[in-house]
Amino acid sequence: MSLSTHAASSQSAADEPGRHWFINRPKVYPAPVQGTFRRLKWAAVIVLLAIYYLTPWIRWDRGPGIPDQAVLVDMPGRRLYFFFIEIWPQEVYYLTGLLILAAIGLFAATTLFGRIWCGYACWQTVWSDLFIWVETKIEGSRTERIRLDKAPMTLKKALRKTAKHVAWMLIGVATGGAWVFYFNDAPTLMHDLLAGQASLTVLGFAALFSATCYFFAGWAREQVCIYVCPWRSFQSAMVDEDTYIVTYQDWRGEGRRPLRKSQSWDEREAEGYGDCIDCKLCVHVCPTGTDIRKGQQISCIGCGLCVDACNEVMTQIGRPRDLILFDTQNDQVAKAQGQIVKPRVVRPRTIVYGLILLTVASAMFASLMMRATVDINVLRDRAPLFVALSDGSVQNAYTVKVLNKTHEPRSYTLALQGIDSPDLSAASMDGHGTTLTLNAGPDSVATYRVFVKLPQDKAKSGSTDVAFTVTETKTGEVGTHKSVFMAP
Fold first, then answer.
1. Do residues 278 and 146 lie in contact, with contact meaning Cβ atoms separated by under 8 Å?
2. Residues 293-326: tens digit of each pLDDT
3. Residues of the chain with pLDDT under 50
4. The pLDDT value given to residue 23
């Protein structure tokens, strides 16, 4: 990309045709650019899209009768599978832990490198990059796209616009289709989709996600980052003077003036002009249309494309690079005074975030490693609270659910603690006594209706705290659930 390529498009973005939701915002026509940060962004796009589209097809053998999809949200089975990890509904606190890790990780990354998430990893950025690339391939360079939008409707313009939107829709369909694979067995669902046998629910959600992707990445683009996303407001509280952000060295670049061919740099400096030749290339390549020369703004997503553009210009005109660069505010102030400041990566904020991340991650890892393979849930009947039997004894009824989290059938011994010599029995089971033997299939919940009977002379009036325990007959692993026994 050369300066001459953009000579015809050097008019201000304010003069371009606009689309707006809230204000009369000029439409942004991002120009292509080459450089280190553009390569990093393409690498992020390729890796993240590959992870998104390929993950549902990864297989993971969990044994017979268990889904073999590595990452699956099994809504009918009420399970979340992530490779060797299996999360039950009762373990929703793991999801809470993941959300905490994600939030603190985002805070830490922002404190160190500004809006690096927004510039490289956010889904809006990734898909917008892809959509802009498609738009450039079909409609041409920035100048050509501006000229095309201003031109009256012709057959050629209609064909280009149609081709672009069809390509966007196909990407949206691929995106929405891939998302529903995370909630269904991917090969089976693909077969059903190709055979026209997919359920209306699946088709409805696929259509919803497809339309969302098409709208946000194709039409909304930077307006999501500027107006909709709440993170653009929070991030300003996460950065400090030692955060690496995109900065413009105004002490070196100002004042601005276009470079005349006949003008030497000695003449420019004598006239009070700096290195910035006001080519506006940094603005043209920005996906949000931000002019970083005006200082830090809420619309800057920290992608660094303006750094690549400015470095290319500085190289062409024979001036030092990094007029725009990733730097800290403290370092910028020091450079303006001819000093050097060492970066402070370790500081109170980063220490606090690091400790929180380490604590939460360690707690989750320890919990996963020590998690029980058996659990019990007990629900006591409330109507009636108790039953007085003809022999004078008092009976309470409970619904007992035994969770077998292993992939093989298990047998358990049910006992009751807190009262002396209880008589336990279960519906649809023969026998009774102080304990019961309950069976649970692999990776399932076994439900039993259990009756607890106690002689009237041993039944304490009112409520008595009790605890139901299940003990796995082979391993001795125990699960406990507290309840009460009611008596008149």
1. no
2. 998 888 899 999 999 999 999 999 989 999 999 9
3. 1-22
4. 55
Task: Report the distance separating Cα 27 and Cα 32, nearest Å.
Answer: 16
Give the Cα separation of 228 and 223 in Å (integer).
Answer: 7
SS (H, E, C) the chain: CCCHHHHHHCCCHHHCCECCCCCCCECCCCCCCCCHHHHHHHHHHHHHHHHHHHHHHCECCCCCCCCCECEEEECCCCEEEECCEEECHHHCHHHHHHHHHHHHHHHHHHHHHCCHHHHHHCHHHHHHHHHHHHHHHHHCCHHHHHHHHHCCCCHHHHHHHHHHHHHHHHHHHHHHHHHHHCCCCHHHHHHHHHHCCCCHHHHHHHHHHHHHHHHHHHHHCHHHHHHHCCHHHHHHHHCCCCCCEEEECHHHHCCCCCCCCCCCHHHHHHCCCCCCCCCCHHHHCCCCCCCHHHCCCCCCCCCCHHHHHHHHHHHHCCCCCCCEEEECHHHHHHHHCCCCCCCCCCCHHHHHHHHHHHHHHHHHHHHHHHCCCEEEEEEECCCCCCEECCCCCEEEEEEEEEEECCCCCEEEEEEEECCCCCEEEECCCCCEECEEEEEECCCEEEEEEEEEEECHHHCCCEEEEEEEEEEECCCCCEEEEEEEEEEC
The whole-number pLDDT of residue 1 equals 44
What pLDDT score was predicted for residue 108? Answer: 92
Q: In the prediction, which pLDDT does 16 show?
A: 43
